[in-house]
């Protein structure tokens, strides 16, 4: 019978080839599972039982990083357990006797808090680029970036990979490849399409990326045709921060804030949570519910308030 270390290798290959998981995901699972195997002294799968898992959870909870002396957060401990559950499910599919994956429960976490903006703050943020003193093409680009982020709920890593070929302004939708290489459909609002169109009308370059750098210093530095002028995640971060300050928004705003804001906006307008899950590219609807529980609760309170006010008038 193979021991855990050999079976972990089989599992990682399965994740990469059959499941199509990203290299980053495979590396993370490799780290978490090899940590468990080393702690357990590389037993055969049949020796993994509830007592062993309980002891491992205590070890994770008491572990201190040798360099920082910091303990593992509950979230990080759960990542270890999630990887282990996935591995045990794989063993069950291979008819290899071990602890059933459902026997491993995750630690309770505090409800995740997310920042989002709306109303006047969002209007000022989306309008800020057109009032800046930058050259016109940069004003138009930044406006298009903010409108696209808010309209689609894209991650910044997904935004910078958009190309002129993948985004068709003749349609209200396009496909984007997200985490794990998964394709999903996202929708463009009329205001986002208009902003992108106005930006592209001013472009005279031959670049394939949808959003590029127009900095003169970078142009002279990257004279070669092969040099890409596509924006980096940090560049987009700076663009968002700059216009948030100009809009008078005091709290920290990131590209992800616009993603959260779009989801919260849809929830407040009664959009089904599964539609939001699909738009954001979350693997599980439970993750979407957890992240936006606060926005959902606010919507329910507002609905309850409106219901009672309406009935008061009828009375």
What are the key terms here?
DNA polymerase, domain 1, 315 residues, hpI Integrase, Chain A, disordered C terminus, two-stranded antiparallel sheet, 3% strand, mainly alpha, 2 domains
What can you tell me about this protein's structure?
The chain contains 14 helices and two strands; from the N terminus they run H-H-H-H-H-H-H-E-E-H-H-H-H-H-H-H. With 315 residues, the chain is mainly α. Helix 2 packs across helix 4 and helix 6 runs antiparallel to helix 8. 56% of the residues lie in helices and 3% in strands. It has two domains: 100 residues, Tyrosine recombinase, N-terminal domain (DNA polymerase, domain 1); 184 residues, hpI Integrase, Chain A (Orthogonal Bundle).
In short:
The protein has 315 residues and is mostly helical. It has two domains: 4-103, Tyrosine recombinase, N-terminal domain (DNA polymerase, domain 1), CATH 1.10.150; 119-302, Intergrase catalytic core (hpI Integrase, Chain A, Orthogonal Bundle).
């Amino acid at each position: 019978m193979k021991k855990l270390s050999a079976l972990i290798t089989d599992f990682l290959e399965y994740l990469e080839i059959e499941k199509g998981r990203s290299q980053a995901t495979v590396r993370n699972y490799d780290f978490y599972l090899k940590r468990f195997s080393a702690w357990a002294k590389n037993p055969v799968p049949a020796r993994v039982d509830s007592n062993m898992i309980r002891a491992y959870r205590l070890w994770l909870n008491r572990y201190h990083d040798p360099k920082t002396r910091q303990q593992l957060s509950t979230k990080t401990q759960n990542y270890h357990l999630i990887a282990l559950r996935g591995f045990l499910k794989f063993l069950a599919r291979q008819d290899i006797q071990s602890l059933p994956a459902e026997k491993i429960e995750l630690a309770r976490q505090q409800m995740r808090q997310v920042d989002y903006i709306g109303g006047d703050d969002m209007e000022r943020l989306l309008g800020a680029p057109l009032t800046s003193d930058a050259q016109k093409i940069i004003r138009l680009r930044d406006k298009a970036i903010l409108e696209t982020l808010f309209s689609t709920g894209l991650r910044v890593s997904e935004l910078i990979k958009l190309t002129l070929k993948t985004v068709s302004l003749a349609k209200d939708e396009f496909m984007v490849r997200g985490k794990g290489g998964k394709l999903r459909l996202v929708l463009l609002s009329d205001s986002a399409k208009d902003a992108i169109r106005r930006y592209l009308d001013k472009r005279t370059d031959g670049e394939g990326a949808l959003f590029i750098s127009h900095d003169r210093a970078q142009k002279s530095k990257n004279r070669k045709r092969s040099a890409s002028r596509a924006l980096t995640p940090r560049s987009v971060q700076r663009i968002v921060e700059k216009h948030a300050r100009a809009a008078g928004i005091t709290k920290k705003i990131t590209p992800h804030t616009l993603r959260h804001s779009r989801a919260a906006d849809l929830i407040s307008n009664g959009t089904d949570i599964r539609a939001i899950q699909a738009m954001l590219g979350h693997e599980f609807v439970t993750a979407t519910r957890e992240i936006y529980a606060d926005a959902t609760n606010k919507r329910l309170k507002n609905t309850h308030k409106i219901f009672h006010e309406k009935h008061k008038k009828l009375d």
